[in-house]
Specification:
Elements: E1 5-12, E2 15-21, H1 26-40, E3 45-48, H2 55-66, E4 71-74, H3 78-92, E5 96-100, H4 104-107, H5 110-119, E6 123-129, E7 155-158, H6 172-188, E8 198-204, E9 239-241, E10 247-251, H7 258-266, E11 270-272, H8 288-293, E12 303-307, H9 314-321, E13 326-330, E14 344-346, E15 349-351, H10 358-380, H11 390-400, E16 406-409, H12 413-421, E17 429-431, H13 441-452, E18 461-466, H14 467-472, E19 488-494, H15 506-509, H16 512-520, H17 527-533, E20 537-540, H18 544-551, E21 558-564
Parallel strand pairs: 3-4, 3-5, 5-6, 6-8, 7-8, 9-15, 10-11, 10-12, 12-13, 13-14, 16-17, 16-18, 18-19, 19-21, 20-21
Antiparallel strand pairs: 1-2
Helix pairs in contact: 1-2, 1-6, 3-5, 3-13, 11-12, 11-18
Bound molecules: thiamine diphosphate and magnesium ion.
């Protein structure tokens, strides 16, 4: 028992903690101190992928979950882990920490990091690494990790490999790790930057890579605390908006409810993308693309107040690119909008007192009412035994979703159809529109579902996506046994490939064979086999009645609802 050491802790005065640890490891003590500090800074979710170099972090996370301090999610594929953390960050507004080993494992986080950066979602990356003397000399599984996410992170640090055993969690190293953890969480939440985003902690460890967990884990490190950056940001000074100019409020992705409130306060038309979280209220414009393109309405706009990141309509992109239109972009998450080169970024806005321009709003309202009559006819007009088209599909999903549920849109034809046809409804929506990738969609929705249902909260998460997006993220169907089960319905519009390109310019210039091969990219995958192989329930529905029934099915399990669609 020569390796046995008795450690006397001093964490609580008068209450000496005596522990016997058969195997001591500086890596374990440092990992434990770091994770405890992250928990103290408000981190509640860890997403771990297995690996040897990262074992100390993974085992500390498992212990913290055993003690009820955090939720742990294990994912084999780091790309899936990254997007799962992104979904949790989207839903909670607090960073989830991803833990992975060195090498390509870390590189697999890049897609989620990019999306988090562009969409302004907080996230922590804990990448284990070799110590500096083993880098650049051909050591196994070793690459240049420091700086590998550099342009896209709010904070990064490459720590020194830990050297010391920490007797009581109060050592110099633990104190340093607490400071780093607090700084990383604050940065991920947006302190000192324009918005939230990813923060990267590169963590080299020497052998022994793991030992017995320190007895002080959970005694001195984990305490209830709010988010580190909560009090950091000063209240923004609202930019005054005179009533005068003919104005619309434009709500892009992740705009949130402020956009609707401003439209109401100003008496201005609200153009709200379906992924904005602001598609509701009496000022909402239906069929907005035609209205914005109409010279008598859109053509007379003098000022646009933009919330969030508009990406779904070329008409609104054209509008905010016009140099003759005053564009004010209310700072939110993500890259600042400036398509016309003269957009003014403001922290917040308020309407100056005065008379609303009733004639301006009235003209838009009349056009919107006419458009909405057409939309209801298009979406709800077919009998319940009729086959499902895209408008009917998005309508059914929208109708089935209640405020306690979550709706996640993938990037495909379907989100565009939804944007075109759906009427107002105040429900929580998510979509990865930072970079509008078709990657990581299932993992993101899984993260949203897991985060939204913690604490026994009810509701189901519905993910509406295309077949290629499913095939891109098949790895995310995998949930190791015993993992927290998301209440998740993935509703797949299966049209045999990527139909989004059929409506783009490329369809006019490409020959049919090439178009099919390199853009549509057909597949003949049997989705039910995939679903069943990964332990999902599967249902294929062909009529509106069957779809409504499937969407209303009790939400206990992961369920893939396949809706065959014409190309
Ligand atoms: C990671 C990534 N690769 C490629 C693209 C380009 N892309 C956009 S939509 C799409 C096809 C989507 O097909 P599907 O999911 O079946 O949706 P559909 O349009 O058929 O409804 C592709 C390849 C992308 N956005 N992201
Ligand atoms: Mg498709």
């Amino acid at each position: 028992m020569d390796r046995l050491s008795a450690v006397v802790g001093r964490s609580r005065p008068g209450a000496a903690v005596v522990s016997s640890r058969a195997i001591e490891s500086p890596a374990t003590d440092a990992a434990a101190a770091l994770l405890a500090a992250l928990v103290a800074s408000g981190v509640r979710h860890f997403v771990v992928s297995p690996g040897s170099r990262s074992q100390a972090l993974a085992l500390a996370a498992a212990e913290l979950e055993r003690r009820g301090a955090v939720r742990l999610h294990v994912r084999i594929d780091e790309r899936v882990a990254g997007f799962t953390a992104l979904g949790i960050g989207r839903e909670t507004g607090a960073p989830a920490a991803v833990v992975c080993t060195s090498g390509t494992a870390a590189a697999n986080l890049l897609p989620a990091v990019l999306e988090a950066h562009h969409a302004g979602v907080s996230m922590l990356l804990l990448t284990a690494d070799r110590p500096s003397e083993l880098r650049g000399v051909g050591a196994n599984q070793t690459t240049r990790q420091p700086g590998m996410f550099a342009p896209n992170v709010r904070f990064e640090v490459d720590l020194a490999a830990p050297e010391a055993i920490d007797a009581d969690g109060g050592g110099v190293q633990s104190a340093m790790l607490r400071a780093v953890a607090a700084e990383a969480v604050a940065a991920a939440l947006g302190a000192g930057a324009r918005s939230a985003g990813p923060a990267h902690l590169n963590l080299p460890y020497r052998e022994p890579l793991g030992g017995d967990l320190p007895p002080w884990l959970g005694v001195c490190g984990v305490r209830e605390a709010g988010l580190a950056a909560e009090a950091v940001e000063p209240e923004p000074r609202p930019h005054p908006l005179p009533r005068g100019p003919r104005t619309i409020v434009l709500a892009g992705a992740d705009a949130g409810t402020d956009a609707e409130a401003l439209a109401r306060a100003g008496g201005w038309p609200l153009v709200a993308e379906v992924v904005s979280g602001a598609r509701f209220g009496r000022n909402l414009m239906h069929g907005y693309r035609a209205l914005v393109a109409d010279p008598a309405l859109g053509g007379r706009i003098e000022r646009v107040v933009v919330f969030g990141h508009p990406t779904l309509a070329r008409e609104t992109a054209a509008l905010v690119s016009r140099p003759d239109v005053e564009v004010l972009a209310v700072r939110g998450p993500g890259e600042p909008l400036n398509l016309n080169g003269a957009t003014v970024a403001v922290d917040a806005v308020r309407v100056e007192p005065g008379e609303a321009d009733r004639r301006w709003l009235g003209a838009w309202m009349r056009a919107s009412r006419a458009a909405s009559a057409d939309l209801s006819a298009a979406a709800g007009g077919s009998p319940s035994a009729a086959p499902i088209d895209r408008a009917a599909l998005v309508d059914a999903v929208w109708r089935a979703t209640r405020p306690r549920d979550r709706l996640v849109f993938g990037s495909s034809t379907l989100v565009r159809v939804a944007d075109a046809v759906l009427v107002g409804k105040k429900i929580p929506v998510h979509a990865n529109r930072g970079l509008a990738g078709i990657d990581g969609t299932i993992a993101t929705a899984t993260g949203v579902a897991l985060a939204s249902q913690t604490g026994g909260r009810p509701g189901v998460t519905r993910l509406l996506l295309g077949d290629l997006a499913v095939l891109h993220d098949v790895g995310a169907l995998l949930l190791p046994p015993g993992e927290h089960e998301p209440r998740l319905q993935a509703i797949v519009g299966n049209d045999g490939g990527g139909t989004i390109f059929d409506a783009l310019e490329v369809a006019k210039i490409a020959g049919p064979d090439a178009m099919d091969r390199v853009l549509y990219a057909p597949h003949s995958v049997r989705l039910e086999h995939l679903a069943l192989a990964y332990g999902w329930e599967h249902e294929r529905v062909a009529t509106r009645a069957a779809l409504d029934l499937a969407l209303a099915s009790p939400a206990g399990r992961r369920r893939l609802i396949e809706v065959p669609l014409e190309r």
